[in-house]
Amino acid sequence: MIRIAVHGAAGRMGRRLMALIAQSDDLQLVGAVDRVEHLPSDEEAAALCIQAGVSTGQFQDTVPKQAEAAIDFSSVAGTRRVLEQCAADRIPLVIGTTGLNAQDHLAIDHAAESIPILQAPNMSLGINLMMILVGRAAQMLGDDYDTEILETHHRFKKDAPSGTALGLASAICKATGKDLANDVCYGQYGPDPGDAPRERGRIGMHAVRMGDVVGEHAVSFSALGERLEVKHIATDRDVFAHGALAAARWLVNQPPGRYGMEDVLGL
Ligand code: NAD
Fold it and tell me: What global pTM score does this model have?
């Protein structure tokens, strides 16, 4: 059995991870870590925490040292904290949290010198394949085709655009020699005529927040006379949770280093 700790255990992803670990044959939950004090009122999640040894009626404050891997779906502040702890305690870490900045990525690179770390803004097979497809399409179609990325998520999501949308933009930039900082245009607003022309070669990025949408990403490449769209719709959070568990299983056998889902999925 592989001993897993979930960081952000009380959250939407954390609760699903704990439920899937409880159902698996090869994983054992040894830590349910969160900043909130008390177990969730939701009976299933509370029972899972207790099963994981959180018998005091409270989430744990730190990842137990006996964990063979930690999985983090929390917040940027949470990731910073768990990264430091896992590096100090030599615990392999899967990071699913999004909204990380350049400095966070440098800190991950640094920690990856001593532990294996897999960080991915999206853990689904479909999205990771989509990253490859849109890069290839952008490279083949060139700037005669306008590239627009549209992402939609539930009303509770805290960062925008989504880490996945940025990942898609990055994949396109990498394939075309563009630059994420200079070639992406966030939204389009220009109330006066002439204020908001579409610039050739720019990658448009749009975020929509509404209701309970789990996650939708579409990239379109449009010319005069045709449009190619690549679209991914996540209908269930479990697709991310299964990906994160596959990542943890894979990561426990790796040497220190920084990895992505493409390594796990063999893409
Ligand atoms: P959520 O708000 O439902 O849950 C986050 C949990 O983390 C909460 O219980 C919160 O109390 C806990 N937390 C926050 N800061 C903490 C800290 N400093 N220490 C300990 N615990 C802390 O959010 P969610 O929908 O579960 O998503 C969590 C993160 O995962 C977000 O960044 C989201 O964008 C990302 N996400 C990534 C993927 C992926 O495939 N990589 C998929 C879904 C969500």
Answer: 0.89
